[in-house]
Amino acid sequence: MNFSLVFFFPKWSYALEKPNTGSIFNIAWSVDGTQIAGACGNGHVVFAHVVEQRWEWKNFQVTLTKRRTMQVRNVLNDAVDLLEFRDRVIKASLNYAHLVVSTSLQCYVFSTKNWNTPLIFDLKEGTVSLILQAERHFLLVDGGGIYLYSYEGRFISSPKFPGMRTDILNAQTVSLSNDTIAIKDKADEKIIFLFEASTGKPLGDGKLLSHTNEILEIALDQKGLTNDRKIAFIDKNRDLYITSVKRFGKEEQIIKLGTMVHTLAWSDTCNILCGLQDTRFTVWYYPNTVYVDKDILPKTLYERDASEFSKNPHIVSFVGNQVTIRRADGSLFHMSISPYPAILHEYVNSSKWEDAIRLCRFVKEQTMWACLAAMAVANRDMTTAEIAYAAIGEIDKVQYINSIKDLPSKESKMAHILMFSGNIQEAEILLLQAGLVYQAIQINIDLYKWERALELAVKYKTHVDTVLAYRQKFLETFGKQETDKRYLQYAEGLQIDWEKIKVKIEMEITKERERSSSSQSSKIIGQKH
Residue 520: what pLDDT? Predict the structure, then answer.
């Protein structure tokens, strides 16, 4: 009697073999997951090997045709190269113009520009379970640890943390960028460890990224400066969050981007994030908008119906403007998003603001203008921000930007830009460091932060009467009586004289303007010398 041997990949049938061996009583996989052995009813042992695996990147398709042979096809010119290996292939990854292949004894690194002369180095263990790639280097995970190598084969670092178990790490719990390695802790699944890629040491002061719920999937963005590096993650409630890896000590900096998100991926060419959100495919063209202007975040999104992907689809890759999604039945679906947001990112990163404005005028899409508005504010280019906000009908913000332009000093302008982005504390610190105490008091008055305004006035022994006057005016407007003990204490026996207060404010503004003019003159004289 013949029995079938069926291979499944989590939820779909991958291959079917019908060996003439009688009943198969037991099967076992090899440690590396590339071979399977079966004990048969006729006394034989049947061995099988996993082949026909495929990896794709841009115009290249790599197929494992035999245990020790790969075929590389360039779909642009239909050129074919055969790659032969001394031992059987265990793991492989194709990304960032490099193919990294792990055999039972060695690691091979191929460049897509030259398939004939790979870089080869020996492995400590032959059981590589995961390969992750970034633009500058790649990560190998085996039973002994985590190892980071350059594409020239140079060992870079090996991050470690207490209780680390490499056997359970996968592409959802480890993420790699040019400067950072992120690893989810298995002992406490609310924690993410962050390491410097170049040294393998904990990032910054060694603090952990800690969340309120268990984390399911993590992903680091791939472009930009180290100080701007962001990490996105999905928790067990399927909420999507984003935070800066340099500011993870501040709980308020972990901001929710979306709900019911099942899978996510960053683009390899710019910091655009995509995810499958319930029944929608969503692209966050500029996720950093949540730190700049949350109000316009919905205007920076692209959404389309994702019901055609059926249940539990998974994003395999996000290369350029091409997203590859694997459906629940195992089939791959390729879809393209607009190429213009990536071009906009490129212009902004190069400070080509005029080109960015011309691009938005050419495309004529609200999402592009909204992205440009947020990008301009993040980069302190308020002239571009004014144009972009006007294009999306945010007139109140255009007026506020115009008011910033009229401020007498660059410190005041910068402080109000920080306020525009919601960074109130940073704006106040900037003004106090510049000696602009009145301006620091005034921004608290404008935001109705009365306790802080009075605290600063008392501490620096200036404009206490100004704070009391504005407070009194505020209460009169709403027909209320003063109940705050501190305000009652300082108001006792004090007469409010608005004329004197206005004169003091004018003097402060004049003094600030003169100081700004003198500092600019000093710079000009210095440049002439």
Answer: 56
Our measurement of the distance from residue 313's CA atom to the centroid of its chain's CA atoms, rounded to an integer in Å, reads 21
DSSP string, 419-455: HHTT-HHHHHHHHHHTT-HHHHHHHHHHTT-HHHHHH
Helix (H/G/I), strand (E/B), else coil: 299 = helix
**No. of helices (H) and no. of strands (E), the chain:** 13, 32
What mean pLDDT value characterizes the chain?
88
- Residue 230 parent element (H or E): strand 230-235
Domain extents for the chain?
Answer: 5-49, 415-529
Q: Distance between CA atoms of 205 and 181, rounded to whole angstroms?
A: 15
pLDDT winner (highest mean) among 12-21, 89-98, 503-512: 89-98
Question: pTM here?
Answer: 0.86
Sign, CA dihedral 306-309-310-314, equals negative
Q: Which two tokens stand for residue 224?
A: 């930009």
**What does 95-141 look like in DSSP terms, one character per residue?**
ETTEEEEEESSEEEEEETTEEEEEEEEE-S-S---EEEE-SSEEEEE
Across the range 18-47, mean pLDDT stands at: 86
- C-alpha–C-alpha distance, residues 72 and 70, integer Å: 7
Angle at the Cα of 210 (from 207 to 215), degrees rounded to 5? 135
